[in-house]
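Sample A.
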Amino acid sequence: MTAHAYAILDSYVYGFALEEANLPGGGGPEMVELAEDMTQRFVDHYPNLAELTTEHVLRPGYSFGDSFEFGLDLIIEGLDRASR
């Protein structure tokens, strides 16, 4: 269980950091341009993902980093359940 926990936590933290590092710096117009470009590419095949982007990501105050703690809590709760 320790090996599973370590691998999952390591992958989550590394993946989140990598994703955040590759986002346009500071958000703003660069983030809007990226989100709009991505939305155009998948709107026909993934309408729910397009909706998430336009209704959540493009809203003022959105921060990708704010999702980190939520995801980490989910992982820790799942690991806790699995270890019982």
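Sample B.
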Amino acid sequence: MTTRVIQILFLCVITLLSASFSGEVFAQSATSTATTTEQEVVAETKTPSWYTSERITGNIQVGDFVVGPGRAEVFIKPGETVVQEITVTNRISSDRTFKLEVEDITGSKDGSSAVSLMGDDRGPYSIRDYISFPEDEFTLDLGERARIPVIITVPADAEPGGYYGSVLVSTVQNSQSEAGAGAPRSPVIARVGSLVFLRVAGEVTEEGQLIDFSTINQKKVYESGPVEFAILSENTGSVHLNPYGEISVRNMFGEEVGFVELEPWFVLPSSLRSREVTWDREFLLGRYNATARINRGYNDVVDEISYSFWVLPWRIVGGLFVILFVIIFSVRAFFRTFEFKRRDV
């Protein structure tokens, strides 16, 4: 009986000890989890930021910085606010300071350039009042890429149509040693822009056409390929256009010997834009006819203009003339030297 009681008491002690140890483990685990969660919240609270950043890999010290995208098209209704993101990648040096600005842009009246920055002046379709940033300066380490929010707000009474500008990112020197000993300090090293094409919903005017198509400087005779073409488009509407199309080239026998597909490009309102296209083919000979078929970028309207040119390799043509002259001269000399008489039967 005594032995039985001892066994029962021993089992009770073992059970109580097991429950006690198990409670301590679970308590420690729960405490540990709570501590980790609390540390994550504190870390996020300690490092607030109005933009996000990430590290890049590969060759990061190449002496420049990269801004993207090159162009963004934003469609918006009056009274709305949208956030468009641009990226800035620092490949210059550590602790590089960048500054954000907005400038209006305009097209060219002669087609010589795609866009022109307006500086402090306002463009005919100003976007300056519609774009803002949480802050206009930020610092990046070498190899760091920032994702910058660009806030676009259009008032409720905004006129429908296109508004055009550029978000400019400039970098500032941080020390005199960076510029070199004895060199004058320049506050701005470079500026890179990301174009913003804003289209406010409503009734707009889409109107434009293909003005001209020819070779560059309307050149008529080439010695060899490649051949460079120039396309001149006009936009007379209130929003930008994205024309696209193709160029086909036929030889003197009417056979198609060349084809160039044209990806969409943009033409700003109230402006002309010239685009150069290269037909890269080396050996050419004779007369060719090139035809440009350009879709205006709206209502599937296509304009068509043709242009003819010659390709005459003077070395080859000159050599053929020399050979032909030698053959003719030899034949004439042969007949003058030998007299053929008819034999009577």
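B remarks: Residues 1-48 have pLDDT under 50 and may be disordered. The helical segments are 2-46, 176-179, 314-337.
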